[in-house]
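Database export, one record per block. Field names are fixed; values are copied verbatim from the stored entry.
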Amino acid sequence: MAPSTFDFPPYVPHPLLAHTYAQTFVGALPRSIPARLEATGVERVFDTVDGNRVLSSCHWQEERHERPTLLLVHGLVGDWTSPYVLGTADKAFARGFNAVRINVRNCGGTEELAPGAYHGGMTDDLRAIGEELAERDGLTRIYVCGFSLGGNMALKLAGELGDDTPEWLRGVATMSPCIDFASSADCLDANLFNRMCQHRFVKGLKRIVRRRKELHQPEISLDGIESIRTVRDFDDRYTAPLAGFRNADDYYERASALPWIPRICVPVLIAAARDDSLVPFESFEREEVTGNPRVTLIAPDRGGHTAFIAREPARSASYADEDRRWGENRLVQYCLDLDARGNGSA
């Protein structure tokens, strides 16, 4: 589907959040679970691969089999309550989608469910969840929606499937996807704000590996773990070897979605701010992205990382019930438009 076929309202950032750091900070602030989601959530554990299980919260429409489904994938050390996940799921449910919020393997306090390692290139779990929803639940119009690291997983899954993409996967929508791990890891040391974000990421990753040692792999050595300060060093010491990669460089090369994007055969949306300090915009200017006509890239000058908080809601008959979360609304609009145009077919 050609990018020009989508009519997105312009993004104007909130005047008090003009800077990327302000957008990113406010966008990451916790939110309470919306009433619609609180009232409809049903916990479900998916059996995926190699004895791993993934906890989800499913929000079903009446006559769910006739409705499209949005499968939402959070970012690094996030979980199913990450603010962008809650906001997007609530908007999707209000527009008639089933919404499935997952805790990526080992995240959200679910380490007991999954002996397998957590890393940013995992796609087997997403594929297994999609297959179960299609085969067991009869949901044949599924859209995968990923944020940051979850966006990488969603895009990599679509690329791996390529020409063999199953009928149930109708499209992918992403916000601020981290598609080139090496460049993102390097930029985490670029300034004080990024280093603060990196500190939070590393703290969460350390917690996961400690729980992994306690529950599944007592042989993991924690010697020197407190001295690790960067995501790259953590990935080199723990993420890569635990997930079967040689080192961080090997992990970044093989787990990044960027080289897989040319093989994607379903419609894809990438919403990426040019001022995102955590995901360098240059990765979206690569031929792998621009050369695939299935990819629709919307790239406002501002918006931060997984934020896009607007000055005011979009004002038109089509967007009368929007809030200021411009990015979340665009992901839902994209999937809704795809579904209306032949259930996601090009």
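Remark 1: The chain has one domain: 3-179+260-340.
Remark 2: The domain at 3-179+260-340 is CATH 3.40.50.1820 (Rossmann fold).
End of record.
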